[in-house]
Amino acid sequence: MKGVFALLLAAASAAWATFWMEDIAHRGIAPFNPDRSYTVFRNVRDFGAKGDGSTDDTTAINAAISSGERCGGYACAGSTTTPAVVYFPPGTYLITAPIVNFYYTQIIGDPNDMPTIMGSPSFPVNAIALLDGDRYLSNGKLNFQATNVFFRQIRNLIFDTRNIRGNATAIHWPSSQATLIQNCAFRLSSREGDIHTGIFMEEGSGGMITDLVFHGGKYGARFGNQQYTMRNLTFYGSDTGIEQIWNWGWTYKSLRFFGCNVGINMSSWDVGSVTLLDSSFVNVTTALVTGRNPGIDTGIGSLVVQNVEYRNVPTVLKGRDGQPLLLGDPNGTVRDGGYARGNVYAPKGPRLLEGRNFIFSQPSTLKLGNRYYERSKPQYEHYPVTVFVSAREHQAVGDGVADDTGALNTLFRAASNTSQIVFLDAGYYKVTDTLYIPPDTRIVGEGLAAVIMGAGKNFADESHPRPVVQVGRPGDVGRVEMSDIIVSTQGATAGAIMIQYNLNTAAAENMCAPGRPPSGLWDVHTRVGGFAGSQLQAAECPITPDQANVINSACISGYMSMHITSSARNLYVENSWLWVADHDIEHVNSTRINVFVARGLLVEGTQIWLVGSSVEHHTMYQYQLVNASDIWMGQIQTETPYYQPNPPAPYPFTRNPDLWDPDFDYDCHRHADSNSVGLRETFPCEMAWGLRVVSSRNVVVFGAGLYSFFNNYNTSCSTAMAGESCQARIFWVGGETGDNNTGLFAVEMYNLNTIGSNLATFASTLAAFRC
Ligand SMILES: *[C@@H]1O[C@H](CO)[C@@H](O)[C@H](O)[C@H]1NC(C)=O
Ligand SMILES: *[C@@H]1O[C@H](CO)[C@@H](O)[C@H](O)[C@H]1NC(C)=O
Ligand SMILES: *[C@@H]1O[C@H](CO)[C@@H](O)[C@H](O)[C@H]1NC(C)=O
Ligand SMILES: *[C@@H]1O[C@H](CO)[C@@H](O)[C@H](O)[C@H]1NC(C)=O
Ligand SMILES: *[C@@H]1O[C@H](CO)[C@@H](O)[C@H](O)[C@H]1NC(C)=O
Ligand SMILES: *[C@@H]1O[C@H](CO)[C@@H](O)[C@H](O)[C@H]1NC(C)=O
Ligand SMILES: *[C@@H]1O[C@H](CO)[C@@H](O)[C@H](O)[C@H]1NC(C)=O
Ligand SMILES: *[C@@H]1O[C@H](CO)[C@@H](O)[C@H](O)[C@H]1NC(C)=O
Ligand SMILES: *[C@@H]1O[C@H](CO)[C@@H](O)[C@H](O)[C@H]1NC(C)=O
Ligand SMILES: *[C@@H]1O[C@H](CO)[C@@H](O)[C@H](O)[C@H]1NC(C)=O
């Protein structure tokens, strides 16, 4: 169908009284919660919140979050059975104590008339935040371990701390994968003596944050985390826009600073690296402060800057000691096409680099104008509720038991034909065969609690892999949008490809034409094992570090998490976590489990953006690019399975040469490359690749964290004392066979951080790399 969504774009120009999410019938369920009356959707008004700016709404809001025996107390480390959407209609909600967030909560305001969370003058100055994403318990520990804080979002809210005298913070956000803050504003005091902060984040393994505006404050935000991707943040008059407390890698894109004293202060010696793209500083005294003073030759404070403008900025970069390292123009504009400060490893390295005019290849197909393409998750806020069709209203049951294959396939076909938006109510949609998403379909899930779960014999055969969700068939032309959906499996499903993406959007649309964006997946995750209903929990899939090569075949539950095939063109993926569970989320001790999925994300397509993604615990590789071209990857993150090398890769799977699977036997035992022999004999070699790039071109990686913490569940190998020796190799770029560099064109990687694999490739350790 041509002119996709045209009808709706016209309809969208009208103003709608209420956000569809408030109006729509709330049919979402949590089927694996034993309480059949458990309610997912909560409107804070139904709990007595007034939103009138004068009533104290603290108790009502906290009741909306906590009601229904949810996971938020001492005895709960995590839970997928108590998801909630906590919704705020327009209004000003006065609070006198923190709003305390629980596990698996989406806190969402009306984007058409954003509600304000207002701290009252009596708000305690020593309270950690207006909205405490993860509270500190009396034992000094966070309620939820920061690296296990998953599946939560905050959207469309204004946080106002200005009535609070002294110290105040709007959001406390230790956070990890599958989390998001989107479209929020912060109004912070800049009064003398006040220390106000928009977001305070001290730990975790994130994550994605987009579309925030900070007004004032001592700090717009203070960020510390392993890694993160953040986009479209604007700071007006904050003393320091961003204080980077610590990190391994961080990708910032489209930041704007106006009238700040300092833009980004990354001078802490705990800062590993920062990538800053497509940004601007206006009327800022010092744009950047670094801890990487001249002469430092470690990886500390590596900085990559591309396409950044400084207007009326006297100092672009200052050292920790206050020395100016790069000057701007106090009364004019300076533009940095490319600046890099760190170690360069290609063609040979390490070689110290501190300089402007660093040339980046910048594939034009990945840009719109002079900036890399970006698009935030659509919230469809201008559409009336009548445009949405509920899955549970249209014969899908979503109870994790009924087979919803037929109902959903019928619904997707019909919705794509009529340009309606499918609303996948919270629930578990068990499917026994492939769900086909036709071109021109839009699907939005409820509360990250809409789970599509492949089950049964159709997905059981490793020699006949089959997609659970297939987006387009090879040759299909058109566009799709999907958001807030989890694709999963149940039980033994060795042949399941969670998502197979085939659609060609480039052939349908000219992406540069206004209103003609690429296809998009936002907050679409895969999750295998470790949750109630998966049949892959602590009881079924215990770890076996004390036994050699023991596999429970009932815990082999995937062929591949996601395949972007060679027919795929022009796809934007943002905030995607492809996770094979390493632990049982429901278990009070977060007990570890052994679940096996052969492959992570295989990309063979063209013109693909992977913005804020992570792929973890797959047996052969996390990311693999084969004959792919025009690929943008920005802060990618991986973890090697904790069990390896017991069993060694690719066991329990068999290599499929048609998919260009790595050949561990050849690489680790028969390969003659002199660089590799010493490594593979000294360190475990039959370990999953973090990133493997084969015969691909125009690949830009802005930030990568490839981590290997364990050998057979023992972390000794990842300590500095052990020389970070968990695996001999974790990253590879090369030609078809892996023997030489043929077929290797314009692959660039900036700010690579590895754990447990100090000698990252056959050739060298890479921190900034280009061919
Ligand atoms: C405010 O924060 C500063 C700096 O962290 C700290 O020294 C001070 O004690 C805090 N004041 C209060 C009242 O908590
Ligand atoms: C950036 O964020 C602002 C504030 O949420 C929003 O209005 C704007 O549309 C966003 N820009 C892009 C390019 O997404
Ligand atoms: C940058 O942050 C450090 C703390 O990490 C602080 O000591 C220093 O004063 C800050 N620099 C500027 C210019 O604000
Ligand atoms: C920057 O400062 C100049 C001079 O004070 C002022 O005219 C201009 O409006 C400011 N620009 C912005 C974007 O704040
Ligand atoms: C900045 O430039 C303007 C216009 O060129 C000029 O009038 C002004 O005096 C300059 N200010 C400074 C501080 O150099
Ligand atoms: C799609 O719409 C057309 C025209 O409205 C109709 O004839 C056709 O039967 C529809 N197809 C499906 C699969 O619903
Ligand atoms: C959790 O760990 C504690 C302390 O090690 C132990 O006493 C308890 O039995 C464990 N709980 C379960 C359900 O395994
Ligand atoms: C690689 O991709 C190009 C198009 O980008 C295609 O023409 C070629 O056949 C592909 N090669 C292989 C080995 O798949
Ligand atoms: C982990 O490995 C180290 C080094 O090989 C060894 O000393 C230690 O005992 C192991 N720990 C466990 C719990 O097996
Ligand atoms: C690279 O590998 C290919 C495939 O094995 C082989 O055909 C080619 O001759 C090799 N090229 C070089 C320069 O070694």
Automatic annotation (TrEMBL):
It comes from the Eukaryota. Residues 41-265, 388-460 form the Rhamnogalacturonase A/B/Epimerase-like pectate lyase domain. Keywords: Hydrolase, Signal. The keyword Hydrolase applies. The keyword Signal applies. Residues 1-17 form the signal peptide. SUPFAM superfamilies: Pectin lyase-like (SSF51126). InterPro entries: Pectin_lyas_fold (IPR012334), Pectin_lyase_fold/virulence (IPR011050), QRT3-like (IPR039279), RHGA/B-epi-like_pectate_lyase (IPR024535). Pfam families: Pect-lyase_RHGA_epim. GO terms for molecular function: polygalacturonase activity. PANTHER family: PECTATE LYASE SUPERFAMILY PROTEIN DOMAIN-CONTAINING PROTEIN-RELATED, POLYGALACTURONASE QRT3. This is Glycoside hydrolase family 55 protein. It comes from Trichocladium antarcticum. The lineage of its organism: Eukaryota, Fungi, Dikarya, Ascomycota, Pezizomycotina.
